[in-house]
Amino acid sequence: MHPECEHCEWVEKARKLEEEVVALRGVAEEVIALRGVAEEVVALRGVSEEVVALRGEIDELKRMLFGRRSEKMPTVSEELRHRKDVGRDPKEAQRRRQEHLAAKRNLPERVISHEVPAEQRRCPKCGSTDLIPLGEGKVSTVYEYVPARFERHVHKRETLACRCGEYVVTADGPTKVIDKGQYGPGFVGHLVTSKCADSLPFYRMEKQYKRVGVPIARSTMVDLFHVAAESVRPLYDRLLDIIAHELLVQADETTMRVQAKGKTHKSYLWAFLSGDLIAYKYSPTRSGETPSQVLGSTVGTLVVDAYTGYNPVCDPEARIRAGCWSHVRRKYFDALPTAPEARAMMDLILELFLVEREAIAGGFAGSERHLALRKTRSGDTVEAIKKWLEDEEPKHLPKGPMGKAISYTKSNWTALTRFLDDAGIPIHNNASESALRVAALGRKNYLFVGHDEAGQNTAVLYSLVSTCEAVGVNPQEYLADVLIRIQDHPQSRIDELLPQNWKAPPKVDAVA
Q1: Which of 244, 287, 303, 354 is the most exposed place for a label (fewest CB within 10 A)?
Q2: Where are the domains of the chain?
Q3: 228 with 476: CB under 8 angstroms?
Q4: In whole angstroms, what is the distance from residue 508 CA to residue 502 CA?
C-alpha cells in the first residue's frame, strides 16, 4: 500500500467495517451455538415428558398385573372411617340389626324337644325320682341349613264323558313356561336367578342339579333361559321406558365377550338406572347410538363419566350432563406413585363426600337443607380445588399422570360442579358402576355369550333380577309367578307386574 494511502479516509472505514464483520461473525456463531442448545433443551424436554408419561403407564400396568384384583384404591367409606370427626351412625347400625332379626324370625320354625335321660332323673342327694318341671326349661336357637329339593309333580287331569257318548271334558292342566315342557316356572325362576343374580355358569348348575337328583342338559337350560327372556320382554321394555323418562338418570357401560363362528369379539352392556330401577342394554359397539336409542330426546340430568358416547343425548334442551367425582379421585390415585402431592387433591375430594355422608346420616339428603350445606361447605371446597388446580398445573407435564388428572378435572369442570345447584344430583356415579359388577362377575365365570341375541336376552333378565334385588323382592319367587301371569295379563295393566309394583300371591301348600 502506498504510504500516502495509509491515512486515507476510505482505508479507515474499511478497517472499521472489517472489525465489525469479525465481531458480528462471533455473535452469529454464539447465536448458532445457543440455538443448538435451545433445540437440545426442547428435545430433552420432549423426551422427559415422554419418559414421565411412559413411567405412569408402566406403574399402572404393574398395578394391573401384580396388584390385588380387588379394589386397589381405598374406598371413601374406608378413608372416612379413619377420620376422628366421622363415626358409625348408631341408629343405622341398630336399624340393620333389627332388620336382620326380623328376617330370621320369619324363617320356618321347627321346635325340637330334648328330654332329660332316664339315668339323670334321680336326685343324687335324696334319691327321689319325682322330679317336677321348672318353668318352660331353657330355650336356645340354632339356625340350620336344610338342603333344597326339587319335586316331581304328577298332574292327574280328570276326564269325564257323557253316557250318550257325545261329550267328553278334561280338566285344565298346569300352565307351563314352555308348552309341552317338563319344567315348571319355579324351576325356571331358580335357573335364571342363579345365572343373573349369583353369576353361576350353566355347567356349574348342571352339577348342582345332578346332585339333587335332576339331571338336565346344558342345552336345555340355555333354551329355558332364552324362553324366559322372550316371555318377560314386555316387562323389560316398559321398565326401560320408565327409566328413560325419569328426570335423573345414571349410566355406565362395561365390556361383554360374544362368541360367533368360533371367534370371540368385544361387545358392551350398558346400565341405565334411576333410584332403585335398573335396566341393561346390550350393544355390539360402544358408539353413542345406544344412549340415543334409550334416552332419545328426554329431558333431565344424566350422571355419567367423561365418555363422549353420551354426548348425543347431553344437550341443553334435553339432558344436562353431571360429572362423577369418584372418577376424578381415581385419576389422582393413579398419579400418586409419581406425584405424592396428589394426596392433597384426594383429601379435598374426600371433604365433598363427607358432606354427602352427613346429609344421609342426618336424614335430609336431597332437601333444601342439603342444598344449603352444599352451597356453603362443598362450595368452599370446590373453590379450594380450583385454586389447587391453578397452582399445580404449571408444575407438571401435560402427558404425565398428574398432568392428565388435572386436565381431566378442568375439562369436565362444568359437569363436576353441577351438583352445587341441585341437591338431587349425586356427586358420583357409583350406583351405575355397582350395577355393572354382577356383569363383571358373570364375565369372569361364564366368559362369553353365544351370540348377539343371547347378549340381549341376558340384558333383559339382568334388568328384572337386579331391580327385584334393589326393591327388596325375591327374584326367584317373582319370576316363578310372573312367567305364568304374563301369558294372559292385559297389556294396559303391565305395570302391575313390574318388580317395584309386584305383589306376591298367597302361598298355598303343595298337593301331597
Answers
A1: 287
A2: 159-233+476-489, 324-428
A3: no
A4: 18
197: its cell numbers: 343374580
Distance of CA 486 to the CA centre of its chain: 29
Helix (H) or strand (E) holding 274: strand 263-274
Determine if residue 269 is left, alpha or beta; phi over 0 gives left, psi from -120 to 50 gives alpha, anything else beta: beta
Burial string for 305-329 (b: 16+ CB within 10 Å, else e) reads beeebbebbbeeeebbbbbbbbbbb
> So what's the pLDDT on residue 290?
94
Using CA atoms, how far apart are residues 245 and 272, in angstroms rounded to an integer?
A: 11
Model pLDDT, residue 487: 87
What pLDDT was estimated at residue 51? 65
| Alpha carbons 229 and 8: distance in angstroms, whole number | 110
Report residue 71 as a C-alpha cell: 379394589
Average the pLDDT over 202-220 and give the result: 89
Q: Is the pLDDT of residue 88 over 90?
A: no
Strand, coil or helix: 252 = strand
What is the per-residue DSSP string for 7-26? T-HHHHHHHHHHHHHHHHHH
Return the axis-axis angle of helices 233-244 and 218-231, rounded to nearest 10°. Answer: 50
The pTM for the full model equals 0.77
Phi-psi region of 262 (alpha: psi -120 to 50; beta: other; left: phi over 0): left
Alpha-carbon span 177 to 227, nearest angstrom:
8
Q: Which of 145-154, 250-259, 368-377 has the lowest mean pLDDT?
A: 145-154
Q: How far apart are CA 292 and CA 315, in angstroms?
A: 12
pLDDT of residue 372: 94
Residue 280 one-letter amino acid = Y
Nearest-CA neighbor of 192 among 223, 168, 163? 223
State how far the Cα of 400 lies from the Cα of 78, in Å rounded to an integer.
28
Residue 342 cell numbers, joined: 396428589
Neighbours of 342 (CB within 10 A): 23
Cell of 498: 313390574
Please report the pLDDT score of residue 481 as a whole number: 93
CB-CB contact of 457 with 224 (8 Å): no
HEC profile for 151-180?
Answer: CCCCCCCCEEECCCCCCEEECCCCCCCCCC
